[in-house]
Amino acid sequence: MKARIHVTLKNGVLDPQGKAIEHTLGSLGFDGVNEARQGKFIELDIAETDEAKARETVTAMCEKLLANTVIENYSIDLEQ
Amino acid sequence: MKAAVIVFPGSNCDRDIQVALRQSMGSEPQMVWHKDADFDDVDLICLPGGFSYGDYLRCGAMSAKSPVMKEVVARANKGVPVLGICNGFQILTECGLVPGALMRNSNLKFVCRDLHLKVERNDTVFTKQYQAGQNIRIPVAHHDGNYFVDAEGLKALEDNGQVAFRYSAEDGSVNDHSNPNGSLNNIAGVYNAKGNVLGMMPHPERLCEDVLGGTDGRPMFDSLVAALS
């Protein structure tokens, strides 16, 4: 099973890299970008085939290592 | 006094702390490889600066999970003093020994220069030989030193006196202009609630000898030796 994890900064946490992306897009003439937020994408190939168990395991992985929950949120998509 | 310096793959200030400790202690600190969870009982544990594990995933994230850190957390919780400098501070936040997180500098630049710090209190084992309110000159060298904690956490830090140092100007004033990285409330270093764990971005170990251009870092190591010997 594939687990695709997006890690993003929480709302209210300043994202200076996102700001820089936003400004550069503006300077390239791409108008209308209200905000840019940068995050991480992590893809795991896992042996577990049961979706509920896989979600539980990947959630534990996010809590323990993949995300820093002081500043980051995470979302998990599973695909058989 | 016995001290241990934990060495991770990618640490690069471990020798600097070793030299600073040797000077203040008059004896050799123990250098502990990160896989050696079973090290001697010591009075002080230091986590050095550097780029452990290449800063992969997040600064300090991998090191916080290394075998030795379980032991460091257990000892810190029993009251053993732990000093984390720069990457060591990042590791302390990642393993939860001090609150908050260190994010990319707000101006996105690596900042590498001497700057000034206001010493908030001098009643801890780390700062007895400074004066409360003293302005000291200490080098910084980091890309991810922008201290963040949520509003509730920030209030708790301030209310409990857990702020150790703030970035200041040469004249001692603390304001946005003297903030090199966007840290909330100019925070350069924090204590845990019990005050036996200190994490800080600046490098006192790099300014402990006249030949290096200053000695404002030395009182930290002298304080530790005086308190723990």
TrEMBL record, chain A:
What does the record give under GO molecular function? Answer: ATP binding; phosphoribosylformylglycinamidine synthase activity
Cite the EC number: 6.3.5.3
Q: Which residues form a coiled coil?
A: none
Which reactions is this enzyme annotated as catalysing? N(2)-formyl-N(1)-(5-phospho-beta-D-ribosyl)glycinamide + L-glutamine + ATP + H2O = 2-formamido-N(1)-(5-O-phospho-beta-D-ribosyl)acetamidine + L-glutamate + ADP + phosphate + H(+)
Keyword Ligase: yes or no?
A: yes
Q: Which GO terms describe its cellular component?
A: cytoplasm
Q: Specify the domain of life of the species encoding this protein.
A: Bacteria
Spell out the protein name for this chain: Phosphoribosylformylglycinamidine synthase subunit PurS
What organism is listed for this UniProt entry? Answer: Kiloniella spongiae
Encoding gene (name): purS
